[in-house]
């Protein structure tokens, strides 16, 4: 059990919605019901008169001038248009906040929303990604003059020269589809002022409390030290909770202005409509290859759906662009991505952040080359993987910070070999002809991936021992349920020869930790844990020095053992940590700034059956071989991997965010947005390869997102393989039973025509 | 997602429930297990002036085997249909289909009467009740009537209930010994709404199928009896396969977000074929 678990299992967790303060108002947001329109008028007069209503505001009622929300990740290539907290004179997606009501109860607030009269002057909708990118398209932001707000580019070698030399090529169009993260706890914010100290306290279900403090303070015009942001227990984040939303400003604003506590809890419909999405891309991709299967070049031109506004810069398309070669040696790369606005919810990183899209694309291309050359796909991959002895390996492309990408460590071929073996790849291949002859459809596939983890720039940790001997680790962080406390306590305890249960971990509170970037990009095990490790080592040194003086024994002859310090070999009581720490206690800070991201990697393999009558996909076997370097806590790593795979299975086989031609989201409840449950999950075999990272003292690499990255690739390829006798080629990251049944039906009709009989 | 205001009544007797229901002149809704109604309230799709909660009304819950029928009180929880011997022996198709309704948590709250009165066209139990010729007992102030299941479902979420009426019980004929039965459905996930479902009941005389009943869920506004498939079960050379094809050709489902009409027809073929095969296998097992 993790250190966090007893309280959570007993129902003693404190989530934002558990916070109830005297006199608290409840906020409800009126959201646009149309995708694109001029706002002619918003009349909140009747809502103000509704029982229990404290305020009903539109944009005009906010303190002027109203700042737009910030772009969290500026980039020189990006012309960023961010939304205002409440729409000013135009709405650009269904769900965009138009007005707010704060009332004594959420019921009254929602009742009052119905009293608000909005007049929309509809504008043409920009619902199609391809059409949006074309010249002459209706513009989402007219002042940009185009829906393309950024162009990302990656180049290595000279792809054109490969083409000119007459290499064989394959071109495909591939579509990655829109999904989102689904934390069991939706977003939520509570804010309250303290008149005595003149401070504002904000509890938010978020991944980056320090970021939110900075933005809230700036938007309210307060010094940062008067704003405290606390991320209490957070029930899942998956990326979207790392963004800054209108409500993250509106709730503190109301609390500050009205001097009353205010609460807003996102409901599930709002989560689907107005929490960021990801993954929608269209790729036109060409690979060049040698007759022996070596990949010679890759060219990709892709469109990335930004949605209506910029939220977290262009992290997703940049990640996609530089991840495309993945674990393969491809000497010539030419990638161009256009970042395109549409009248849909904004997109931003969701677990994997552009890397699942890249893995989907490159794995489909690799498979296509294997099919074309009639080579086994595993053999072809092995021929192209970066070998272990090539580490560190310079990819030739640049990362988010425009630094050259160097894979620090890994054994990609070993991961692939073991993943294939774990699903009995060779056996399935041998059995397939008989299964197909019998009318069954069984397929097998593998997919490899790399993941940039442990991104910088830095984290700070404090390890302290007070007079009573209590050891406390303090970090900024912001755990969303990953088990940071368990992991960090272990790291600290290992340095101080303690039991992890004796280490207290304080996290997610800007009043406790001076600064932090927060939790995202599979960085905490690398960056936070490394900072804790360094701080704990400093504490150890000081403890031993202090004990040496007290015991009259040189520090190098002392040992730490379960909370006691004594001369090595002595059986005496020695002294306790509190005593050694002395009257002032010991407190050490350490900063860890990784030189560059660590490269986690791995391979997944899947065996699937397709039901010929219904198109339903059953996962027969699923295996993951995962390399996140040295594992700080194998149970937590496996939980992350398994959760990532479940996320990937969900977005490949079940979950759909469907917008219609009018820009209406059709999947606004969990009745229509179909999330799988434990009943849909296969057994997942997880094996580990541990190649330590040379980039940090612990040898760790991140583990939070790798689980999801190759899932759409491996499942869609396994299904494609199952339907190989029908010549099926799948082009979408979403595998719908209905589409598979369509393939089967067409094939049945064709076969029947060939036989001159009726359909089967 | 909070409902607009409504009055709430929790009567303790059926008479009181019917009185208060009538007093709202059609503006009140009956609350049974709440598994469909409460989400609709929260989404503000339905906006009744009042809810009349049947949870405390005596005598509406329970299962009793009688002469030739199993009587099931309207407030009987779906989980009880799965687990009560009188149901699994007397009308086992009900038990089999009930296990497919929602998730265990939903079935622990959801009721038979609520499920039928809600009349979701994709729901399992309405199709089963039509297949089994069940009869619904319906009460109003100063009156009671019996409605055959086949006449109860009138359209999408629409039944023969008048606004002041309540379903109080369902009488399900005992399935005769030697009969075969099965319920099959295709849903996107376990516990999700069925895309289509099929209830099949067959009886045999000697080695011939003597009677057949095929009722489909999810292909129209109400449970749809498929006589073409029934004929195929009686006369077909390959009864299950023929019934499956006949059902596919007979139905005219509509497209929605989750399935096109063509896909639904394919699924009808799949579920009828599977249910018919299992039902027929059960007869032969019983006969042996």
Can you walk me through this structure?
The complex is a heterodimer of chains A (about 750) and B (about 290). Chain A has about 750 residues and is an alpha+beta fold. Chain A has 19 helices and 28 strands. In chain A, the strands form 7 sheets. A 7-stranded mixed sheet of chain A has the order 3-5-1-12-9-10-11, sandwiched between helices. In chain A, helix 14 packs parallel to helix 15 (about 525-550). The longest helix of chain A has 28 residues, at about 525-550. Chain B is of the alpha+beta class and about 290 residues long. Helices cover about 40% and strands about 25% of the residues of chain B. Chain B has helices at about 15-25, 35-40, 80-85, 85-90, 90-100, 105-110, 110-120, 125-130, 150, 225-235, 240-250, 260-285; strands at about 5-10, 30, 50-55, 65, 70-75, 135-140, 145-150, 155, 160, 165-175, 180-185, 195-205, 210-215, 225. Chain B has a 5-stranded antiparallel sheet with strand order 4-5-10-6-7. A 4-stranded antiparallel sheet of chain B has the order 11-12-13-14, with helices on both faces. Chain B has a 3-stranded parallel sheet with strand order 1-3-2, with helices on one face. The radius of gyration of chain B is 19 Å and the shape is globular. The mean pLDDT of chain B is about 95. Chains A and B meet through helix 3 and helix 19 of A and helix 12 of B.
How is this fold's topology laid out?
The complex is a heterodimer of chains A (760) and B (288).
Chain A: H1 5-9, E1 25-31, E2 37-43, H2 45-48, E3 53-57, E4 90-91, E5 97-103, H3 106-113, E6 117-122, H4 129-133, E7 148-156, H5 159-164, E8 168-176, E9 188-194, E10 199-204, H6 209-220, E11 227-230, H7 246-258, E12 262-265, H8 268-274, E13 281-289, E14 295-307, H9 315-323, E15 332-341, H10 355-373, H11 377-384, E16 393-398, E17 404-407, H12 412-422, H13 425-437, E18 442-453, E19 459-465, E20 471-475, H14 484-496, E21 503-506, H15 524-551, E22 558-561, E23 564-567, E24 575-576, H16 577-581, E25 586-592, E26 598-610, E27 617-627, H17 634-654, E28 684-688, H18 711-722, H19 737-755
Parallel strand pairs in A: 1-12, 10-11, 14-15, 20-21, 27-28
Antiparallel strand pairs in A: 1-5, 2-4, 2-6, 3-5, 7-15, 8-13, 9-10, 9-12, 13-14, 16-17, 18-26, 19-20, 19-25, 22-23, 23-24, 26-27
Helix pairs in contact in A: 6-7, 9-10, 10-18, 14-15, 17-18
Chain B: E1 7-9, H1 14-23, E2 28-31, H2 37-42, E3 50-53, E4 63-65, E5 69-73, H3 78-83, H4 85-90, H5 92-98, H6 104-109, H7 112-118, H8 124-131, E6 135-140, E7 143-148, H9 149-152, E8 153-155, E9 158-159, E10 166-173, E11 180-187, E12 194-205, E13 208-217, E14 224-225, H10 227-235, H11 239-250, H12 261-287
Parallel strand pairs in B: 1-3, 2-3
Antiparallel strand pairs in B: 4-5, 5-10, 6-7, 6-10, 8-9, 11-12, 12-13, 13-14
Helix pairs in contact in B: 5-8, 10-11, 11-12
């Amino acid at each position: 059990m993790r250190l966090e678990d007893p309280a959570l299992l007993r129902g003693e967790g404190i989530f934002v919605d558990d916070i109830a303060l005297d006199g608290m108002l409840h906020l409800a947001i009126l959201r646009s019901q149309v995708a694109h329109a001029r706002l002619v008028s918003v009349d909140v007069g009747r809502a103000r008169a509704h029982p229990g209503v404290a305020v009903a505001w539109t944009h005009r009622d906010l303190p002027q001038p109203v700042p737009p929300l910030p772009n969290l990740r500026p980039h020189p290539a990006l012309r960023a248009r961010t939304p205002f907290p409440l729409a000013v004179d135009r709405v650009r997606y269904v769900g965009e906040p138009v007005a707010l009501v704060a009332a004594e109860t959420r019921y009254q607030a929602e009742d009052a929303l119905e009293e608000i009269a909005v007049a929309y002057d509809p504008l043409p909708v920009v619902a199609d990604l391809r059409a949006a990118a074309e010249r002459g398209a209706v513009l989402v932001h007219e002042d940009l003059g185009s829906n393309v707000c950024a162009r990302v580019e990656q180049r290595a070698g000279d792809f054109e020269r490969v083409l000119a030399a007459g290499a064989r090529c394959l071109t495909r169009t591939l579509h990655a589809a829109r999904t989102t993260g689904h934390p069991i706890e939706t977003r939520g914010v509570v804010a309250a002022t303290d008149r005595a100290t003149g401070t504002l306290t904000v509890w938010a279900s978020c991944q980056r409390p320090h970021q939110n403090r900075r933005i809230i303070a700036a938007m309210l015009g307060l010094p940062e030290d008067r704003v405290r942001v606390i991320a209490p227990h957070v029930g899942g984040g998956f990326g979207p909770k790392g963004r800054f939303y209108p409500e993250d400003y509106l709730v503190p604003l109301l609390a500050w202005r009205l001097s009353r506590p205010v609460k807003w809890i996102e409901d599930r419909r709002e989560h689907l409509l107005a929490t960021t999405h990801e993954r929608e891309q269209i790729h036109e991709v060409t690979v060049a290859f040698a007759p022996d299967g070596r990949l010679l070049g890759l060219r990709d031109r892709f469109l990335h759906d930004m949605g209506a506004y910029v939220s977290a810069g262009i992290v997703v398309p940049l990640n996609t662009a530089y991840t495309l070669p993945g674990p393969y040696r491809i000497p010539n790369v030419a990638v161009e991505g256009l970042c395109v606005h549409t009248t849909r919810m904004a997109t931003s990183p969701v677990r994997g952040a552009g890397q699942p899209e890249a893995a989907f694309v490159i794995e489909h291309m690799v498979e296509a080359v294997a099919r074309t050359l009639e080579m086994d796909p595993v053999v072809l991959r092995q021929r192209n993987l970066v070998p272990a002895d090539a580490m560190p390996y310079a990819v030739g492309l640049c990362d988010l910070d425009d630094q050259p990408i160097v894979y620090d460590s890994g054994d990609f071929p070993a991961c692939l070999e073991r993943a294939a073996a774990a699903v009995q790849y060779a056996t399935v291949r041998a059995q397939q002809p008989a299964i197909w002859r019998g009318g069954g459809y069984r397929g097998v596939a593998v997919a490899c991936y790399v993941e940039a983890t442990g991104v910088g720039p830095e984290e700070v940790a404090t390890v302290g021992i007070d007079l009573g001997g209590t050891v406390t680790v303090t970090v900024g962080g912001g755990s969303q349920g990953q088990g940071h406390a368990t992991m960090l306590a272990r790291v600290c305890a290992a340095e101080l020869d303690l039991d992890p249960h004796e280490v207290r971990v304080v996290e997610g509170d800007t009043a406790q930790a001076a600064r932090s970037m927060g939790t995202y990009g599979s960085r905490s095990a690398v960056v936070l844990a490394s900072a804790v490790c360094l701080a704990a080592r400093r504490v150890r040194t000081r403890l031993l020095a202090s004990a040496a003086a007290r015991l009259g024994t040189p520090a190098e002859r002392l040992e730490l053992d379960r909370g006691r310090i004594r001369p090595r070999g002595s059986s005496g009581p020695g002294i306790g940590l509190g005593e050694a720490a002395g009257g002032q206690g010991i407190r050490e800070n350490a900063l860890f700034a990784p030189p560059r991201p660590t490269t986690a990697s791995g391979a997944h393999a899947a065996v699937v059956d397709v039901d010929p009558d219904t198109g339903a996909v059953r996962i027969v076997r699923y295996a993951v071989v995962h390399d996140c370097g040295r594992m700080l806590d194998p149970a937590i790593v496996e939980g992350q991997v398994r959760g990532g795979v479940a996320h990937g299975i969900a977005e490949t086989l079940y979950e759909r965010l469907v917008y219609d031609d009018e820009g209406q989201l059709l999947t606004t409840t969990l009745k229509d947005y179909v999330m799988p449950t434990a009943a849909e999950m296969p057994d997942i075999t997880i094996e580990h390869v541990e190649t330590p990272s040379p980039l940090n003292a612990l040898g760790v690499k991140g583990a939070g997102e790798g689980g999801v990255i190759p899932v759409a690739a491996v499942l869609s390829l396994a299904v494609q393989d199952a339907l190989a006798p029908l010549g099926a080629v799948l082009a979408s990251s979403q595998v719908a039973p209905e589409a598979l049944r369509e393939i089967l039906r067409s094939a049945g009709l064709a076969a029947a025509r060939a036989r001159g009989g009726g359909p089967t | 997602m909070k409902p607009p205001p409504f009055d709430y009544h929790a009567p303790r007797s059926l008479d009181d429930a019917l009185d208060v229901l009538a007093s709202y002149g059609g503006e009140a809704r009956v609350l049974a297990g709440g598994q469909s109604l409460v989400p609709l309230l929260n989404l503000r799709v339905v906006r009744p002036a009042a809810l009349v909660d049947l949870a405390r009304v005596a005598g509406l819950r329970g299962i009793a085997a009688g002469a030739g029928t199993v009587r099931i009180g309207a407030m009987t929880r779906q989980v009880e249909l799965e687990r009560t011997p009188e149901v699994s022996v007397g009308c086992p198709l009900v038990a089999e289909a009930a296990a497919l309704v929602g998730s265990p948590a939903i079935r622990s709250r959801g009721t038979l009467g609520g499920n039928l009165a809600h009349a979701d066209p994709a729901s399992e139990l309405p199709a089963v009740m039509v297949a089994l010729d069940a009869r619904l007992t319906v009460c109003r102030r100063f009156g009671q009537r019996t409605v055959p299941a086949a006449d109860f479902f009138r359209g999408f979420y629409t039944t023969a209930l008048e606004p002041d009426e309540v379903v109080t019980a369902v009488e399900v004929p005992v399935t005769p010994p030697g009969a075969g039965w099965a319920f099959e459905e295709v849903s996107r996930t376990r516990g999700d709404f069925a895309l289509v479902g099929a209830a099949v009941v067959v009886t045999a005389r000697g080695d011939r199928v003597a009677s057949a009943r095929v009722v489909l869920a999810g292909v129209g506004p109400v449970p749809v009896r498929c006589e073409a498939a029934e004929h195929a079960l009686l006369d077909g050379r390959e009864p299950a396969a023929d019934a499956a094809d006949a059902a596919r050709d007979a139905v005219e489902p509509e497209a929605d977000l989750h399935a096109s009409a063509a896909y639904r027809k394919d699924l009808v073929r799949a579920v009828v074929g599977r249910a018919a095969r299992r039902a027929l296998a059960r007869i032969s097992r019983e006969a042996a």
